[in-house]
Design brief:
By secondary structure, the chain is of the alpha/beta class. It has two domains: about 10-250, Type I PLP-dependent aspartate aminotransferase-like (Major domain) (Aspartate Aminotransferase, domain 2); about 250-340, Aspartate Aminotransferase, domain 1 (Alpha-Beta Complex). It is about 40% helix and about 20% strand. The strands form three sheets. A seven-stranded mixed β-sheet has the order 2-8-7-6-5-3-4, with helices on both faces. A four-stranded antiparallel β-sheet has the order 9-10-13-12, with helices on one face. A two-stranded parallel sheet has the order 1-11. β6 (about 165-170), α8 and β7 form a beta-alpha-beta unit. α2 (about 35-45) runs parallel beside α10 (about 235-250) and α3 (about 60-70) packs across α9 (about 220-225). The longest helix has 16 residues, at about 255-270. Bound molecules: pyridoxal-5'-phosphate. Pyridoxal-5'-phosphate binds near residues 59, 60, 170 and 209. The site of pyridoxal-5'-phosphate has 13 residues, from α3.
Length: about 350
């Protein structure tokens, strides 16, 4: 039994998801003829209270398209300093959108109106890039899955729009946030111009993300998807996995959160853990004590067939998911308790 806690992207399709994929009706989606892709896009748009959606191969692509369609070259994107769009997308904002980023501290990655207000540039001053977009991340991966409540997002959005800024959401783990807040997905759309949702994280689909956006942005989003090389042909096989995931794998996310909390409790009690970030959803990030390295801990975990990843100089990350069950949880906790350095 291999226990893979490196990411929630490692899940494999279940037999029922496989079945849904094999039965998918497909067509050439570049010609707009794949019924399964269309169904997925319509489902996502209506779930989130928006008008349009575009199915893409990855969450990096949906974020990059989102930023691209909301900016002009020389604009600036306001985001958390550890945000995925800045730190983990290969410099895409610079390369694809020719935009600069304004990096905010946030409160565990969550931005506030005050911090945003203090970082909007003066458009009259030619020295300064034009502040164009506020990009939020929910949940925040670099901050162990911290999440926003919709009421705080509403406040940010109303303020940002009053200053002429657009709103993008990196919702790679959007449904993990909703699992904790009980906010309604359908209420999100009105606060954003574009929202990226990953099907291949906690939802357990093998591939795919969806960019949900305003109707008037859809043609540009489709054009950019083509230009980025993300136009796929009989993509309905993948879309069918996504539809299956949306129908079957949202309600169970609370199990991932419960198991993550139990792992956090176990880690909090062992002498080789220095500090643990609060475990809010399905991501656990902790630092190890100074006299040891993350590599040493990872090597010992690997001896017990447990995989995790280094996530900073002294930090390790674990992520719970669909393929991590109670038996694996027990074994992982027992191993955590047993390790000594
Ligand atoms: C995983 C992730 C993405 C998208 O990643 P891909 O691997 O390109 O699908 C975007 N944002 C966050 C916060 C993520 O964790």
């Amino acid at each position: 039994m291999i226990i893979d806690l490196r990411s929630d992207t490692v899940t494999k399709p279940t037999p029922a998801m496989h079945e849904a994929m094999m039965r998918a009706e497909v067509g050439d989606d570049v010609f707009g003829e794949d019924p399964s892709v269309k169904k997925l896009e319509e489902t996502c748009a209506s779930m989130l209270g928006m008008e349009a959606a575009v199915f893409c191969p990855s969450g990096t692509m949906t974020n990059q398209i989102g930023i691209k369609i909301l900016t002009q070259p020389y604009d600036e994107v306001i985001c958390y300093k550890g945000s995925h769009i800045y730190k983990y997308e290969g410099g895409g904002v610079a390369g694809n959108s020719l935009a600069s980023v304004r990096l905010l501290e946030g409160n565990r990655g969550r931005l506030s109106v005050d911090e945003i207000a203090a970082n909007i540039n003066n458009v009259q001053d030619v020295h300064q890039p034009i502040s164009a977009v506020v990009s939020l991340e929910n949940t925040v991966v670099r901050e162990a899955g911290s999440f926003y409540y919709l009421k705080d997002i509403a406040t940010i959005s109303e303020f940002a729009r009053s200053k002429g800024l657009k709103m993008h959401l990196d919702g790679a783990r959007f449904f993990n946030a909703l699992t904790e807040t009980s906010d309604k997905a359908v209420d999100y759309g009105k606060y954003f111009d574009s929202i990226s949702i990953c099907l291949s994280k906690g939802l357990g689909a093998p591939v795919g993300s969806v960019l949900v956006c305003k109707k008037e942005l859809e043609p540009k989003a489709r054009r950019m998807r083509k230009a980025f090389g993300g136009g796929m042909r009989q993509a309905g096989f993948l879309a069918a996995a996504g539809i299956y995931a949306l129908e079957n794998n949202i309600a169970r996310l609370k199990e991932d959160h419960k198991r993550a909390a139990e792992l956090g409790n176990a880690l909090n009690r062992v002498s080789w853990v220095k500090a643990l970030m609060p475990v809010d959803t399905n991501i656990i990030i902790f630092s190890v004590i100074d006299k040891i390295t993350p590599e040493q801990v990872l090597a010992k975990l690997a001896e017990h067939q447990i995989k995790a990843i280094k996530f900073g100089a002294q930090e390790i990350r674990l992520v719970t998911h669909l393929d991590f069950d109670d038996r694996m949880l027990e074994k992982t906790i027992a191993t955590i308790k047993k390790l000594s350095f």
